[in-house]
Known about the structure:
Elements: H1 2-47, H2 62-67, H3 69-99, H4 108-140, H5 155-185
Helix pairs in contact: 1-3, 3-4, 4-5
Amino acid sequence: MSNLKNSIMEKKKDYVLKTLEVVSWIIFVGLCVEAGALLFNFGFTLFRPIATHNVYKGLNLSNLYQNELAHYIGIMSCVVLLALLKAYLFYLVVSVFSKLNFVAPFSIEIAKIIEKMSYEALAIALLSFVANQYAEALVTNGYELHETTAYWNDADAFLMMAAIVYVISRLFKKGIELQQEKDLTI
Length: 186
């Protein structure tokens, strides 16, 4: 009876992990599409300024483009860089799922990826804070940039994520040490 219960629990765990992996892939692909579209549209607007009226999903930066090209490039660079960083973060998440091994879960490779994820989330949070301050400074100078806040309004969440994932990476490193000690004593 106990073996049957363990078998059912294992299948349930596998199902949950597979579902999380599929969801991670979907998010990763979506973020890649968004980053690619933003990058393409940014480049396109530099040659065809008419496209600044709808850079991406209704983002209208035509006034900024016409009056301050350098600030337009700065704001769009922040938007594109954030999109690329978020896509890379989910690439790392997908990498964890592909390299996960439940026989020996505490591997150096996984620990390094998780640590990279924490640094990546921190970079996203910091860039979001900087971009938000930059946009607010432009708003005080009379530019309409409220639509851009959607690209960096989750800085607090990424900062918290960075802290949590960093703690998890430290736990993984401790798990590796314990696993190696166990292997040496056997």
